[in-house]
């Protein structure tokens, strides 16, 4: 037994989070007969697709050794702007002007909102050399406050079938949110793996000074990363709003924590330079399955939080000790 | 007071100190003299307990001692004042002086009154009329130094080691420091004084010890010694490296620099570089020598566009005036910089060899906007072969390679940009002899192919071995320009700061 474990050690290390996920699924499946059903499977995937959107952006930010605490608020504001424009359009009584928004127009406006907030994060961080923690913490509050102002504290509902299709519809037997988050994953994997931008993100996280001396425009890349994180949070906001047929003023509260958890469980180093999108996807799936399993097993919500915390701790400890073993 | 016998210290195969013997006497100032890399700081770190692992014996007041930690050495009475001061800026003078040795009342709380009183006494003794409650961040560097000395006096240190104490302070502060040292001498302390500024040593020191290449060469009374005397003892090695034959130089310079100035990042009235002017020709190797803090690295960084907001003066490349706002601009114009700290600035250690080599040159391996693995591999493998980089594969993480091979990766990534002017900052620091020679050969070959080369080094033999022309810097000035056959004495004389 000892010998065989040693032989397979590299393989175990490489696929440790996949193995953990498999074990988790088997355990929950044994304890609950509702887990391994097709309906539940799609349910889990649909639930995690929002977190995947956000976490993909978060991964890029963390790879540059930064952090984005504002994603939850950015998600809420982007969703609320899209919903508000769709429902009410823009009315300027003074000029006797009314601009109505199509579903497509509202979606574009939502994503632009997220991008703009993200760009602002990046600009503040690079222009004033602010720690990302501080700049995005400020944005967390600002964007939440703007959401409250925009919605006046009430949910914006009744958005119409063609908008809610985004979060609830199916295409070729697969829920639309899964298509969307899957597409985002595919494109960012390509971006990180096959383009200059991706390479520079890894280089900046590994050694900012070496990247600068190699002629990399650090500020431009960083601003790009935060803008992308904001845009992806906005996509998450559109999915949430569309699924609920309602933009809640307090949507996305503490989503940044689930997304940081997914990034960390996925093996991305918080000090930057090391990690991957696919790792984060695994992390998000682990959290999603865990949430789903704990609900199916009727574990009290209070205990659910404790268990989730312990899983995060374990994941990072295992990752640290295996990194040392290399 | 303190005597070291046959101290030997090795760092993974490299001998930093080789059977060093020396002695420091009470009531005397002993100057420790030597070039960069002669072993001064290693020796001081052993004496102050930073390196507990060495061969040989240290005697203190006639007893054999072996310090396990800096704290251990301090408790015995040996204090060191480092070039970079070790004070905590947002604590007061009192809090800093008593850090780790706080006085407490019988209730276990801090006895602030007693500590404040004692600090006041120490500051009085050192003639620093400042409240003990002042934050250290509000003090000038010279005053901070006095606080460090007060810290040493608090624990009744008998031996006080000062490493380049005057390198960062003004002339009037130097005078204050010298008065304090004279007082300490009277109090029968043994002072160990490390400095490059020979004038200071003649003024202050009673005795000297010369270190060269990790060996103690000579010690004795300062009286009767002359500048030239001491420099000869510092250098004194047989020059066995083959000097380069100066090749053909085209009359038009590749790079010409006129009145280049660099403002200090904080003290904006001061300049880190003062009116530097020089040229580098095509195929010429220009060596820049200077001691620590002479401004060598800043010069290369400024040329590379790293400090564009603080720079003034003219830079011409191929007779065209250029202004580089960022390293990106400089690279595009044909400049390359191999930085001094290759682990931090030269490489991204966590990435593999291939990725490091292609980092400066990703545009050339793109196909339809996407990076081509095949092109990247062939680029990396070309340099792995050309420069004989010893690595298990192009996918090996840079961190796992030896210093020499890491440096070859840095050279590769710059050669891949086909630069016109290659700037190298301490290109062979911490590299074994074989790799060193390979790198020298490569530099000479590149020059023969017409590249202009600017090498900064603090190792005289290196400068002499490969330069066609030698520029000497001291305290931000270009002090002289010497031909390749200059003597080591001449170079060192121009490098030693004249101000005191």
TrEMBL record, chain A:
Tagged with keyword Metal-binding: no
Gene Ontology MF annotations: transmembrane transporter activity
Transmembrane recorded as keyword: yes
Membrane topology: Multi-pass membrane protein
Residue ranges of the TM segments: 12-32, 69-86, 98-120, 132-150, 170-192, 223-240
Alphabetized UniProt keyword annotations: Cell membrane, Membrane, Transmembrane, Transmembrane helix
Name of the protein in question: Ribose ABC transporter permease
Organism listed in the record: Larkinella humicola
Name of the gene encoding the protein in the UniProt record: rbsC
From TrEMBL, chain B:
SUPFAM superfamilies assigned: P-loop containing nucleoside triphosphate hydrolases (SSF52540)
One family name in Pfam for this protein: ABC_tran
PROSITE patterns to which the protein is assigned, alphabetical: ABC_TRANSPORTER_1, ABC_TRANSPORTER_2
Alphabetic keyword roster: ATP-binding, Cell membrane, Membrane, Nucleotide-binding, Repeat, Sugar transport, Translocase, Transport
Main localization category: membrane
ABC transporter domain residues: 2-238, 255-500
GO cellular component: plasma membrane
CDD domains registered for this protein in UniProt: ABC_Carb_Monos_I, ABC_Carb_Monos_II
Domain of life: Bacteria
Membrane-topology annotation of the record: Peripheral membrane protein
Compartments where found: Cell membrane
An MF annotation (GO) of this entry: ATP hydrolysis activity
Annotated protein name in UniProt: Sugar ABC transporter ATP-binding protein
Organism of this sequence: Larkinella humicola
């Amino acid at each position: 037994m000892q010998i065989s474990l040693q032989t397979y050690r590299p393989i175990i290390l490489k696929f440790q989070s996949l193995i953990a996920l498999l074990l988790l699924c088997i355990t929950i499946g044994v304890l609950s007969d509702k887990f391994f059903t097709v309906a539940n499977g799609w349910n889990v995937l649909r639930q995690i697709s929002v977190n995947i959107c956000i976490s993909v952006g978060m991964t890029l930010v963390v790879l540059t050794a930064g952090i984005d605490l504002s994603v939850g608020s950015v998600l809420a504001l982007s969703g609320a702007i899209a919903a508000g424009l769709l429902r009410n359009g823009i009315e300027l009584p003074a000029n006797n002007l009314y601009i109505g928004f199509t579903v497509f127009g509202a979606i574009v406006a939502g994503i632009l909102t997220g991008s703009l907030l993200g760009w602002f994060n990046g600009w503040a961080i690079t222009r004033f050399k602010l720690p990302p923690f501080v700049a995005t913490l400020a944005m967390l509050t600002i964007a939440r406050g703007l959401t409250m102002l925009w919605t006046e504290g009430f949910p914006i509902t009744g958005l119409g079938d063609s908008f809610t299709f985004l979060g609830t519809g199916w295409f070729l037997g697969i829920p639309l949110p899964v298509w969307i988050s899957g597409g985002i994953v595919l494109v960012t994997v390509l971006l990180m793996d096959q383009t200059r931008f991706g390479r520079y993100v890894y280089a900046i996280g590994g050694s900012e000074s070496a990247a600068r001396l190699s002629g990399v425009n650090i500020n431009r890349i960083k601003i790009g990363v935060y803008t992308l994180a904001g845009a992806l949070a906005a996509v998450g906001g559109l999915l949430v709003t569309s699924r609920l047929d309602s933009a809640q003023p307090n949507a996305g509260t503490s989503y940044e924590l689930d997304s940081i958890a997914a990034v960390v469980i996925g093996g991305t180093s918080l000090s930057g330079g090391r990690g991957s999108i696919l790792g984060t996807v695994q992390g998000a799936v682990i959290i999603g399955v865990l949430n789903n399993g704990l609900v199916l097993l009727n574990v009290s919500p209070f205990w659910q939080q404790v268990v989730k915390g312990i899983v995060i701790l374990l994941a990072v400890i295992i990752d640290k000790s295996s990194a040392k073993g290399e | 007071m303190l005597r070291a016998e046959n101290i030997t210290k090795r760092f993974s195969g490299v001998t930093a100190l080789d059977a060093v013997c020396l002695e420091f006497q009470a009531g005397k100032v002993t100057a420790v003299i030597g070039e960069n890399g002669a072993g001064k700081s290693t020796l001081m770190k052993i004496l102050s307990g930073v390196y507990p692992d060495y061969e040989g014996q240290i005697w203190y007041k006639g007893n054999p001692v072996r310090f396990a930690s800096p704290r251990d050495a301090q408790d015995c009475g040996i204090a060191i004042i480092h070039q970079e001061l070790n004070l905590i800026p947002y604590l007061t003078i009192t809090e800093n002086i008593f850090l780790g040795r706080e006085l407490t009342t019988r209730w276990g709380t801090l006895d602030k009154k007693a500590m404040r009183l004692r600090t006041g006494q120490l500051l009085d003794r050192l003639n620093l009329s400042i409240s003990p409650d002042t934050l250290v961040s509000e003090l000038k560097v010279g005053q901070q130094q006095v606080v460090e000395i007060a810290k040493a006096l608090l624990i009744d240190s008998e031996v006080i080691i000062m490493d380049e104490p005057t390198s960062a302070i003004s002339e009037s502060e130097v005078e204050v420091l010298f008065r304090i040292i004279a007082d300490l001498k009277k109090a029968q302390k043994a002072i160990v004084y490390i400095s490059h500024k020979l004038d200071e040593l003649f003024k202050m020191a009673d005795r000297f010890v010369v270190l060269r290449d990790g060996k103690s060469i000579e010690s004795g009374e300062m009286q009767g010694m002359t500048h030239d005397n001491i420099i000869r003892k510092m250098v004194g090695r047989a020059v066995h490296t083959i000097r380069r034959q100066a090749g053909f130089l085209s009359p038009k310079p590749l790079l010409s620099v006129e009145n280049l100035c660099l403002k200090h990042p904080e003290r904006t009235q001061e300049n880190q570089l003062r009116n530097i002017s020089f040229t580098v020709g095509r195929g010429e190797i220009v060596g820049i020598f200077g001691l620590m803090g002479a401004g060598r690295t800043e010069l290369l960084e400024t040329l590379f566009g790293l400090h564009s907001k603080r720079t003034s003066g003219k830079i011409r490349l191929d007779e065209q005036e250029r202004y580089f706002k960022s390293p990106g601009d400089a690279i595009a114009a044909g400049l390359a910089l191999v930085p001094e700290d290759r682990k931090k600035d030269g490489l991204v250690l966590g990435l593999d060899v291939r990725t490091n080599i292609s980092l400066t040159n990703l545009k050339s391996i793109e196909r339809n906007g996407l990076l081509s693995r095949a092109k990247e591999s062939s680029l990396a493998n070309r340099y792995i072969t050309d420069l004989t980089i010893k690595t298990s594969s192009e996918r090996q993480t840079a961190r796992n390679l030896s210093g020499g091979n890491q440096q070859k990766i840095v050279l590769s990534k710059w050669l891949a940009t086909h630069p016109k002017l290659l700037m190298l900052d301490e290109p062979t620091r911490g590299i074994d002899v074989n790799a060193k020679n390979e790198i020298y050969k490569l530099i000479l070959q590149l020059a023969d192919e017409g590249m202009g080369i600017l090498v900064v080094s603090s190792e005289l033999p290196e400068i002499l071995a490969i330069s066609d022309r030698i520029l000497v810097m001291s305290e931000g000035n270009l002090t002289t320009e010497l031909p390749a056959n200059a003597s080591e004495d001449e170079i060192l004389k121009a490098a030693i700061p004249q101000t005191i």
